[in-house]
Amino acid sequence: MAAAPDRPQFANFKEAFCAYYRCKPERFEAKAFWKSLHRLAVLPAIPIYLFNRRFFHQDFDAIRQFGAARNSDEFSNVTDELGTMNRLERSIRRGVLRIRISGTRLLRLHDLLVPYVRSQQAEKITHVPKAAAIDVMPGRNESATREGSALVLRKLRQVHDEVTSGRPLAEALTAVEYTEDTLLDVLTKNSASNPEFAWLRDHLQHRRRLEELEAENSFLTKKLIAQEREIEKLKERLLTDAVKE
After folding, report:
1. 44-99: pLDDT as tens digits
2. Which parts of the chain fold into alpha helices (H)?
3. Last residue of a domain, which of 84, 103, 137?
4. CB count, 10 Å around CB of 65?
5. Three-state secondary structure call for residue 103
6. Domain check: are 42 and 127 in the same one?
7. String of b and e for 208-231 (b: at least 16 CB within 10 Å)?
8. Is the distance from CB of 122 to CB of 71 less than 8 angstroms?
9. Are residues 12 and 125 in the same domain?
10. Are the CB atoms for 159 and 199 separated by under 8 Å?
């Protein structure tokens, strides 16, 4: 969509948003969050936002990506990941009540602001800041486990939250479509800068080690029982031979 000559042009959607709504850059995330939240979720979202803002960490990740997008193609990557995240959602508040941002409302912001965003061709990005991680047209399998991928980080946070809240690991893995080996591999790649992921990696490794020790203990116990039986049989033979003599 061509921009009118007299319209100011900005490098990305965050700059265009702040200029359009006359807000300071540090207010971008909060203002964009409330404007893209599901309408019926506004009232129930207020107390959660005030007392448990971490509940919306996935939404703020998407908002940051939206702000860093420089054209409609990069914006599409944001909405694709947002849609995938929402399809994976199993909780009542986010999945059923939709207390989260809306892809449709985010699209409306895009349509409103895109005339003010300077047209830039999508290019391959070798490094993207974590606060604005945008995957540029990734393959489906590649983006599923790529280090630093926004979708990967959301899946890891989801597994962490469910495991720490008491949900069985097998159920948490099924929800994000990971195997235990895949989870451990992805955690290893992403744990350096995130203590929560490091804890989950160590928890998984300790769990595996405990299972190995339990299996080894079971094997040694069975072996000890078998040896005790052999000793009893040997005693019986010696006693029988002694009686015969």
Report:
1. 999 999 998 888 988 998 999 899 999 888 888 888 888 777 776 667 888 788 89
2. 13-21, 28-36, 42-51, 57-68, 72-88, 103-113, 140-145, 150-164, 169-176, 180-190, 195-244
3. 137
4. 24
5. helix
6. yes
7. eeeeeeeeeeeeeeeeeeeeeeee
8. yes
9. yes
10. no
Report the C-alpha gap between 144 and 152 in whole angstroms.
6
Confidence of residue 215 (pLDDT cuts 50, 70, 90): confident
User: Do residues 36 and 121 both lie within one domain?
Assistant: yes
Please, what sign has the CA dihedral across residues 123, 125, 129, 134? Answer: positive
Q: How far apart are CA 21 and CA 157, in angstroms?
A: 32
Q: Are residues 128 and 160 in the same domain?
A: no
In terms of domains, do 163 and 105 share one? Answer: no
Q: How far is the CA of 185 from the CAs of 97, 147, 178, in angstroms? A: 33, 10, 10
Domain boundary among 116, 137, 158: 137
Give the model confidence (pLDDT) of 129-181 as tens digits: 333 333 333 344 444 445 446 778 888 888 888 888 788 888 888 888 888 88
Q: Tell me, what DSSP letter sits at residue 217?
A: H
Residue 90 structure tokens: 């199993």
Structure tokens belonging to residue 31: 């203002």
Same domain, 186 and 115: no
Residue 115: domain span: 1-137
My answer on whether 107 and 223 are in the same domain is no
Q: How far apart are CA 88 and CA 227, in angstroms?
A: 52
